[in-house]
Amino acid sequence: EPFKNITVPTSAFDAPDTMKIGILDISHNRFSGTLPDFVGFAERLRHLDMSNNEFAGDVDFSFDGLPFIEYFSIANNKLTGQLHPNSSFFVGSFVNFVDISGNQFTGVLSANVFSNTELEVLRLGGTNYTGSTLDASIGELTKLIELDVSNCGIEGTIPTEVGQMVEL
C-alpha cells in the first residue's frame, strides 16, 4: 500500500492551475481538516466528489465559483454550519447530482434547494435541518429520480407536488 498514511496539505491545492481541474474525486480516503478554499472557486470543475473522508468544520464559502458543476458530493464528512442558499450546487443550471448527506449542517433548508430543474438526485439525509419544511417548489424538480431527506429533522406535511413527480 504505497499511499497509505500519505499527507497532502490543503495548500497543495492553492496553486493557480488547480482552477483548471475538471474532475476531482478524492472520495473514500482519510483526508481531514477544512475543505480547501479552491473548491468553491474552481470554475472549470464539473465533477467534485470529496465524500467519505474526515473533512470537518464550517463551510464558510458559497461555491459561487462553480458555474459548470454537474456532480457535487461532500457526503459523509464532519462538516457543520449553514450552507449558503445560493450555492452553485443548489441553483446551478448544470447540476444533476447533489449529495451533502451524513454531515451536521444546520439552519433552515432554503427553497433554493428545489429551484434547479435539472436536478436528478438530491441527498440530504442525516443532516440537521430541524424545523425546515419541504417547500411546494419541490414539484419543479421534474427530472428528480432520487430524493433522500431521511433523518433530517424536517417537519410539516409532504407537499402534494411530491405525488405528482412522475420520475421519483
Distance between the termini: 42 Å
CATH superfamily: Ribonuclease Inhibitor
Low-confidence stretches: none
Strand order of the largest sheet: 1-3-5-7-9-10
Give the strand content.
15-25%
Radius of gyration: 16 Å
Number of strands: 10
Fraction of residues in helix: under 10%
Can you tell me the number of structural domains?
Answer: 1
Secondary-structure content class: mainly beta
Topology-level CATH name: Leucine-rich repeat, LRR (right-handed beta-alpha superhelix)
Pfam family, one: LRR_1
InterPro entries: Leu-rich_rpt, LRR_dom_sf, PRK1-6/SRF4-like
Question: Which features would summarize this protein structure in a list?
Answer:
four-stranded parallel sheet, 5% helix, 168 residues, mainly beta, Leucine-rich repeat, LRR (right-handed beta-alpha superhelix), six-stranded parallel sheet, 2 helices
Outline the fold blueprint.
Blueprint: E1 23-25, E2 32-33, E3 47-49, E4 54-58, E5 71-73, E6 78-81, H1 88-91, E7 97-99, E8 104-105, E9 121-123, E10 146-148, H2 160-163
Parallel strand pairs: 1-3, 2-4, 3-5, 4-6, 5-7, 6-8, 7-9, 9-10
InterPro entries: Leu-rich_rpt, LRR_dom_sf, PRK1-6/SRF4-like
Pfam family, one: LRR_1
Task: Explain how this protein is built.
InterPro entries: Leu-rich_rpt (IPR001611), LRR_dom_sf (IPR032675), PRK1-6/SRF4-like (IPR046959). Pfam families: LRR_1. The chain has helices spanning 88-91, 160-163; strands at residues 23-25, 32-33, 47-49, 54-58, 71-73, 78-81, 97-99, 104-105, 121-123, 146-148. It has 168 residues and is mainly beta. The chain has one domain (10-163): Ribonuclease Inhibitor (Leucine-rich repeat, LRR (right-handed beta-alpha superhelix), Alpha-Beta Horseshoe). Strands 1-3-5-7-9-10 form a 6-stranded parallel beta sheet, with no helix packed on it. It is globular.
